[in-house]
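Pair request: fold both.
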Amino acid sequence: MNKVMLIGNVGREPEVRYVDQGVAVARLSLATTERGYTLPNGTKVPDRTDWHNVVLWRRLAEIVEKYVHKGDKLYIEGRLRYSVYDDKHGKRHSITEVWADNMEMLTPKTLQMSQDVESSENTAVQSATGKSMEPENDLPF
C-alpha cells in the first residue's frame, strides 16, 4: 500500500498550469513540523520541519488555483511518486512527490478571506508603486 497523509502549511503561492486538453495540474510546497521535546536527561530536541512537493490534478488543481495561498494549512492525502532524470550536464536527479488524491483546507474561512483582501491590496500597491509589499522569505508561518 502506498498512502501518505500530511497536515502542513503551504510554503509559497501554488503554481498551476494547464496541460494536454486543458487538464489542470498544481504544484505546491507543504511544510510539516514535528514538535521538539525534552529527553529524560534534560536534552532538548528541537522542532523538525520537512518540506514536501505536492502535485494535484484536475478538479483539485482548479480548487488550489482559486482558494489556496501561501501560509494556508492543508490536509493532503495521496501517494508517493519517485522519478529520476538527467539534467543537461548529465547529472542525475531524483524527485520525490506526493500525488494528492484528496485535499482539505484547514485554514479558517475568515482568515482566508482576510488573506485574499490583503493579497489584492498588495497587488494594487505593487501596481501603483512598482514595489512588492510581500515579504521575501518563503516560510509557511
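--- second member of the pair ---
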Amino acid sequence: MKTKNALLTSFAFATLCAVVSAHAGPPVTVTFKNLGTEVAEYKVVTRNEISTQLNTKMTIAPTVQPRGSDSYSTRSTLSPDTGYASVRYVMGSKVCVFSTTFIKLPGAGGAKVPKWNRTANSEGGAVCTATSRATNFSTYAWAAEFTMK
C-alpha cells in the first residue's frame, strides 16, 4: 500500500510539473550591469519582483560590484502567451526599477502578434536604462540588458 501511495504521489507531482512547464511563458535572460562607482544591491519589494525571484533558475546576486554584472534567466508561469522580469537595484539613495515584458496580442484574422516592452524607472538621481538585445522569433525567448549609474 505504501509503495502504491508513493508511486501515485510521484506521478501526481510529475504531472503537475509538466503542466506548469507547458503553461510557462518564454524565458528571458536578464543581464544587469553596474556602471556606477558604488556597489549595487538587489532588492525585492513588489509582488512582481518576488515572482521574478521565485521563477529564476539561478540565484540573483545580492550585490554587484562597480563595473560588474550579473546574468540570470527567468520564466513566468502565468501563461505561454506572457512573460516578464521585474527587478530593483539600489546604490545608496539611487534606485532603479526595471521591467521587461512579453505578450502575444490578438491580431488580424485571429493571429497572435508578439510584443516585447521594457522600462527603467529611476529615483534619487540614478541613471537607469533598459534595452532588448536579442529575440528568438520561433520560441519568443528574449534577452534584456539593464544598466545603472
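Observation on the second member. The helical segments are 2-22, 47-55.
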